[in-house]
Amino acid sequence: MYPDSRFRKTLIAFWNILKKDMSTYYLKPPNISWGIIFPLAWTLMFFIRTQEPIDVRAILPGVIGMAILFGTTSMLAVTITFERKQKAFDRLIISPNSLFVVIMAKTTGAILFGFCNALVPILFSLFFTTLSGISWGYLFLSIFLISFTSTFLGLFIAVSVHEVFEAQTFSNFFRFPMIFLCGLFIPISSLPVFLRPLSHILPLTYGVDIFRHAINNEGNMPLILNFFLLVLFALILYFFSMQNIKKKWIY
Amino acid sequence: MNNISHPDMSIDDQAIVRAENLSKRFEAVVAVDRISFEVHTGEIFGFLGPNGAGKTTTINMLTGLARMSTGSIFINGIDCDKDHKTAQSFIGVVPDESNLYDDLSGYENLCFCGALYGMRKELRQKRATELLKHFGLWDSSNKLFKHYSKGMKRKLTIAAGIIHSPSLLFLDEPTTGIDVSSARQIRTMIRDLNQEGVTIFLTTHYLEEAERLCDRIAFIVNGKIIRLATLDELVQDFESYETVEFIFESENDKAIPTSVLQSRFPDYKFKPISPNSLYISSAGKLELSKLIAYCEENEMKLYEAKRVKPSLEDIFVNITEEGERHVS
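Predict the joint structure of the above. Result:
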């Protein structure tokens, strides 16, 4: 065997899984263009709808949330389902690396992709407005937490399906309702009363509220409660996914 | 070879794999039913059985892809129930399907597989180069895996299984679905690897392959191992089993009436080999005089009758049929 310590070997494996995913999936031109086109398309849609100059800062939290949600869930659900179908994922499971390391390496790529996707609307908005007075610390922390929860939502989808097309369909089943239920563009207070409880069981609701605090200083819930609930969702999704993987993938 | 001692068991120095009462149940179906066996260090161990017998499920449990329902597995003395991850660093796996990454080149695939085992960059690059040259794939090393032929994919998958120099290699149907020449090359590679000291656990559908390569063979039928022996021992078991080849004159334009022969001699098995020859087998003594007399009476012009040594195929068919009868 090689004289390196187990920790070093784990780091080598982790880094190479991440690097492989970045070069094979995330840094492919169609995905990069997706990260740019998607937020642009949404911004344009608002512009066409209102036919007036848009308040960029007002729609920015929703566009950032959408960019992360669509980027992370679709990428991870599709890539993992694809690798499972090709049985390439079995290689990772039978390697000497723990399931925790494998899953963290796979999800880190998607989290970084989500983070980068979130930066696109922020950078674009610089052309139209000033971003002074933004709490960057809160903003980046919430971008990270939403990327994390959305990635694990993608993992939850990947564990539940067998085919790539099922992953696409199933992720839309979650994502599209979230656009309307999480207060991205329609305030939760404007939703019918019977739908409001649904908004509160979706992590994106809390992430977008933090964005509003950070960008426009106008959130609906206390900042600390938003962070607490978002971290809680992240932990629940992580443990739930790990349990599911152990049960379904190591059959 | 690293033999790691374990306080709970006295390890047979020879056994690199020890499976005890291994079972796998999928709800009501028992895929593997309390099997026990050992794989000796340095041997090529054949694991044979019909489709759905439990071969791949057993490999999956040994390699950590499936959880055993009951029993225990020791690899290199390590109790896999307690620490499968350490055991996994000693093993290489070549699954029945080539499962490398389509969008990576042959070279990148090998380097990636090496990295999964914690190999440093220089080491995995050196080893990948060596293996690509050894397997005759160096000229295609920068080609994407998806553009490889089936035979090349198989060879690269084997190379990926040994990039980290494992002491035990699991090969699941390594030559299935590839051309004769590639299959021959792969068989030579398997033999070379074994001579270099790698213990090989081989499942195959090709009995001739098992006959040529394996030191010992286990037959699994309906999830149970029904025989485990060396090829010589298996042949000895079948010494009383007699097979004779009858070759009829070629101008004999009538088809051999196999079904008539079968009903006349129900204790024998008749298997047509060509339009004018057939094998006649019996678990006991064959009464050749009666058979010859019957042929003469029925104007079947016999040209030659010769005794045939039982092949592994005969043994396999016999053992699996017997095993299936036992189970039913």
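Chain B touches chain A through 30 residues (CB under 8 Å).
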